[in-house]
Amino acid sequence: MRSIRSISSRLSNWAPVKWSARHPYRANVILTLLYRLCLDLVYRFAVSPLYNYSGLTVSWNPAAWFSSLLAVIVFAPAVVKTNRPASSSSILITLLNHLYFIPLTSYYGCKGTCDVKFFIIALVFWALLLLWQRVLPAVQLKPIPAHYTHISMCVLTALSCVFVLYMSGRYTHFRFTLEIIDVYGIRSEAATYQIPVVFRYLISMMPVMLSVELLYWLRKKKYILVAVLIVVYLFLFSFAALKGVFFFLAITVACYYFYREWMMKWFPGNMAVGSLFVLAVSKIEKLRVILSLTFVRTVYTPIQASSQYMGFFHDNPLNLSRDGIMGKFSFQPVYPVDLPSVLGEYRGHFGEHANNGMLGPLFSDFPLPLGLLLLPLILVICFRLLDMVSARHKEKILMPFCIYFAVAYMNGTWSGILLSHGLLVAALLVYLFPREEEVSV
Questions:
Q1: What is the CA radius of gyration of the chain?
Q2: CA distance 395 to 399
Q3: CA distance 95 to 101
Q4: Residue 156 and residue 370: Cα distance in Å, rounded?
Q5: With the C-alpha atoms ordered 420, 421, 423, 428, is the resulting torsion angle positive or negative?
Q6: Which residues contact 45 (CB under 8 A, 6 or more apart)?
Q7: Rounded Cα–Cα distance for residues 194 and 3 (Å)
Q8: Does the global pTM surpass 0.85?
Q9: What percent of the chain has pLDDT over 70?
Q10: How far is residue 318's CA from residue 367's CA, in Å, rounded to a whole number?
């Protein structure tokens, strides 16, 4: 213990650390640039050597690399300013900055052969997203009395547990698995389930509902209920073996116990350290799954998918959300199957259900000029829904939902996340979630 304190004391007296404490804004701008360079190392020496067969290739193009680095230099001040003051929307934008847009510059700079038009469109979209985040006002709702929140949470917890266990027993005979790698057989089986539309929507919202309930009972220190909810959550994961569901549970518990506000304050530096760690462990064959789940599957694959969406819809008619929200108003779809399947075939993988990436809807659902104006505004309005109900909560309560929805927006459509993935439900439940001082009431 003394040695740890001694090391901590020496670090705090180290000149760069003291300078960073005095000038956090400047330090974070520098750390943002450092993170970008670390991403280049990860892409060149870990991602591309292992995944070049899937199109994640390297081609040295000095003009592309220097222009992409210049873009980060230009955007870094705005990226850092977005991080503070902390709110649900600022955390979401910060996560998108570091998990999608800055890696997109690395993807363009390292790949070298990426379409310049795609890069320019992405930068315009990024600039408008940051602009709307800065100028759009936030409205806050008055909290409801704590007595009603307790009753609501009790009822919702009981209904959620009963529903998940019913679905598990009805369709999987209470299958229980902790396998997160070889899951495609379970997913193929889950795709064949004939589930009523209402139940399909409810099961997709359950991760959000169970996570809010889990946090509530953790705050109340009702650990038997917490254990029951974790088991029910694992039955939910076993239903279709979606990795995002499993990691949402892990992130929820980890944030509650281990999250500290300095982690977001120094987020670029933390991401730089994390990227170097992933680069190091990627050299160990048994640990390469960490690289696959983080920088390949979560970061670079959605960026690649967005680029492929632009290529596909350059030569094919727009979908205009007809297999999504517009389909609910009886508009006939343009394509005989859903877009993820269409794009899977376009990628040459028949039967693949490809993600669209964050910019995919920009190319598939809007004429380009209109989409650039509207889609960033729509996203910020969606983020403001959480701002309306979360201003009084600590960051460790909000962080799991911000991470979950940031990753969801990197892979899905805004309307699907608003409805099917439970953003509206999350806003309602966070509104019901009591303040810290109300927990013991």
A1: 22
A2: 6
A3: 9
A4: 40
A5: positive
A6: 279
A7: 60
A8: yes
A9: 87
A10: 8
The count of other CB atoms within 10 Å of the CB of residue 98 is 25
CB distance 298 to 407 below 8 Å: yes
The tokens describing 247, both together, are: 């990691």
pLDDT band at 239, cuts 50/70/90?
A: very high
SS3 16: helix
Q: How far apart are CA 399 and CA 251, in angstroms?
A: 9
Q: What pLDDT is stored for residue 109 in this prediction?
A: 95
Pairwise CA distance, residues 237 & 244, whole Å: 9
More confident residue, 292 or 121: 121
Encode pLDDT of 266-316 as tens digits: 999 999 999 999 999 999 988 888 898 899 989 999 999 899 889 888 888
Cα atoms in the 13 Å half-sphere on the side-chain side of 212: 28
3-class state of residue 434 by DSSP:
coil
Nearest of 302, 287, 264 to residue 396 by alpha carbon: 264
Two tokens at 393? 């909560």
* Alpha helix segments (H runs only) across 173-300: 184-190, 197-219, 223-240, 243-258, 261-265, 267-281, 288-291
Residue 382 contacts by C-beta under 8 Å, 6 or more apart in sequence? 414, 417, 418, 423
Q: What is the DSSP string of 320-337?
A: TTTTTTGGGGTPPPSSSS
pLDDT band at 330; cut points 50, 70, 90: very low
* 249 touches 233 (CB < 8 A): yes
Burial tier of 64 (Cβ tally within 10 Å: 0-12, 13-18, 19+): buried
Q: pLDDT per residue over 338-354, tens digit each?
A: 777 777 777 766 556 66
**Out of 11-15, 250-254, 356-360, least confident range:** 11-15
Q: Rounded CA gap, 429 and 422, in Å?
A: 10
Q: Which two tokens stand for residue 333?
A: 């779809």
